[in-house]
Automatic annotation (TrEMBL):
InterPro entries: AAA+_ATPase, ABC_transporter-like_ATP-bd, ABC_transporter-like_CS, ABC_Transporter_VariousFunc, P-loop_NTPase. GO terms for molecular function: ATP binding. Residues 28-254 form the ABC transporter domain. This is ABC transporter ATP-binding protein.
Length: 309
């Protein structure tokens, strides 16, 4: 699309006062990250912060770079430049204590196919000082996972659930899930994600999960981050985005008047025919929002995704 993303504003907490504070205050912190596969740039000067207790849905089209970003965040891929920190440590050189605070559910895990679920969990338990047996047993029985069948013979959805049980078992402080519901029945996807998030909310766990399916986010993700053209184009609470983002069309003069009247921030403008343009605007918080809402209709999730990804 021939459009320009003008603002990349976020609604983050107040700025920390020193570099040290900055590192410790975040569960994860990426600064100026670049990563290419051969000639193909995937992450471009990407900045991103995950704050403790945030639940973030990472949205982007297929191929936008979500898996690459999550792997880079976890220190599994080395960026060509930039800085990635987890709990204040460089992601490529984490000590065991920080490693034990992280849970990761990859998109596909084909390891351990000859193990049973029981063997797999016993194996992982031996690595972690903290292991929540009651949680493991509760999830295994609620999700009806067969414990004594070879993992290779479980369905894709069952394997994914087992991978999630494994990632939750040591009560991580940061839980990273790459398309965690991809193999699940579409009907149950959102409810399952919601249950998953509820599992970790009371501990204040930071959760980030990627998806390209919008309905996964409804009632699950408190924050959404849009990965577009190698950067986090926008991150904000989902309900706030739905309240504040609007699309309008007209001439540049009409835009100027509208912006002034509504005090709206221009996020993107796309040229149309005959000197007209299409704008993506962000309204200020109430009280002006009420007036603006009558002029520019609200967007549903599909529209939001189309505009931002
Ligand atoms: P997403 O998870 O958003 O679908 P990915 O991170 O998997 O995106 O991929 C981003 C882009 O990088 C895609 O164009 C993909 O084809 C390419 N890509 C991913 N992994 C590799 C790799 N190991 N080598 C080369 N290209 C890759």
């Amino acid at each position: 699309m021939n459009s320009v993303l003008i603002g990349a504003s976020t609604t983050m907490a107040s700025m920390p006062t020193s570099a040290e504070h900055l590192a410790l205050a975040h569960s994860a912190q990426l600064r100026g990250v670049n990563l290419s596969y051969g000639e193909k740039p995937v992450l471009r000067q990407l900045d991103w912060q995950l704050l403790p207790g945030q639940v973030i849905g990472l949205l982007g089209r297929n191929g936008a770079g979500k898996t690459t970003l999550l792997e880079t965040l976890l220190g599994l891929r080395e960026p060509s430049s930039g800085e990635v920190q987890l709990f204040g440590q460089p992601a490529q050189r984490l000590d065991d204590a920080v490693r034990a605070r992280i849970g990761y559910v990859p998109q596909q895990s084909t390891l351990f196919e000859a193990f049973t679920a029981r063997q797999l969990l016993a194996y992982f338990k031996s690595f972690y000082p903290r292991w929540n047996e009651a949680k493991v047993e509760g999830l295994l029985s609620r999700w009806e996972l067969p414990l004594d069948q070879q993992i290779g013979r479980l369905s894709g959805g069952q394997q994914q659930r087992l991978s999630i049980v494994r990632a939750l078992a040591h009560d991580p402080d940061l839980l990273v899930l790459d398309e965690p519901v991809a193999s699940l029945d579409p009907v149950g996807r959102r409810d399952f994600l919601r249950e998953l998030v509820e599992q970790v909310l009371e501990r204040g766990t930071t959760v980030v999960f990627s998806t390209h399916i919008l309905s996964d986010l409804e009632r699950v993700a408190f924050n959404v981050a849009f990965l577009r053209e190698g950067r986090i184009a926008l991150q904000a609470p989902l309900d706030e985005l739905q309240e504040q983002l609007r699309v309008g069309t007209g001439t540049p003069a009409e835009l100027a008047a509208l912006q002034q009247r509504l005090q709206a921030e221009l996020l993107r403008r796309t040229p149309l025919d005959a000197g007209r343009e299409r704008w993506l605007l962000r309204l200020p918080q109430a009280p002006l929002a009420g007036e603006a809402a009558r002029e520019l209709p609200a967007m549903n999730l599909e529209d939001l995704f189309m505009e931002l990804s």
